[in-house]
Amino acid sequence: MVHFTAEEKAAVASLWAKVNVDMAGGEILGRLLVVYPWTQRFFDSFGNLSSETAIMGNPKVKAHGKKVLNSFGNAVKYMDDLKGTFSHLSELHCDRLHVDPENFKILGNMIVIVLATQFSREFTPQMQAVWQKLTTAVANALAYKYH
After folding, report:
1. Burial category of 37 from C-beta neighbours within 10 Å (exposed 0-12, middle 13-18, buried 19 and up)
2. Helices marked H in 36-101
3. Residues sharing a CB contact under 8 Å with residue 71, sequence separation 6 or more, in sequence order
4. For the chain, what percent of residues have pLDDT higher than 70?
């Protein structure tokens, strides 16, 4: 289990309070689909994913990205119980959706990239370290049912 210090929790909560989930969620999922095109196979029902413009402007990508990032918000609330917090989603992605757990790590990287882009001044190397720690811990929690 990953341990977060009080300072790390405060840093995460402070930045998270400024995140526009509607905007960032779509950008995060959109980047994932553009940069790692093989992930598009999980989103066949989303319609046109033929280009960066189509993906980044796709309302289904934006809506699902918002849903994903809202769910990620639970990690910020429950940093001491990530495995329990994400057990249902782990089961869903493992048993029903058959998502390769490696995709959770690259999604975490997309979260870090978008936060760094949107909060460049505040996203110091120390801030990046704690967000990388959190996104890795969430990826591991989501992959838990695979083990």
Report:
1. exposed
2. 52-56, 59-77, 82-85, 87-91
3. 89
4. 87
- The Cα-based distances of 96 to 24, 91, 93 in angstroms read 27, 8, 6
Dump pLDDT digits (tens) for 98-146. Answer: 667 777 889 999 999 999 999 999 999 999 999 999 999 988 887 866 5
Task: Give, as one character, the DSSP assignment of residue 97.
Answer: S
How many residues are given for the chain? 147
CA distance 57 to 103: 22
Per-residue pLDDT tens digits for 48-70 = 999 999 999 999 999 999 999 99
Decide if 107 contacts 68 (C-beta within 8 A): yes
pTM of the model: 0.90
DSSP tag of 96? I
Residue 126 and residue 117: Cα distance in Å, rounded?
15
Residues 138/108, Cβ–Cβ less than 8 Å: yes
Phi, psi angles (nearest 5°) of residue 32: -55, -45
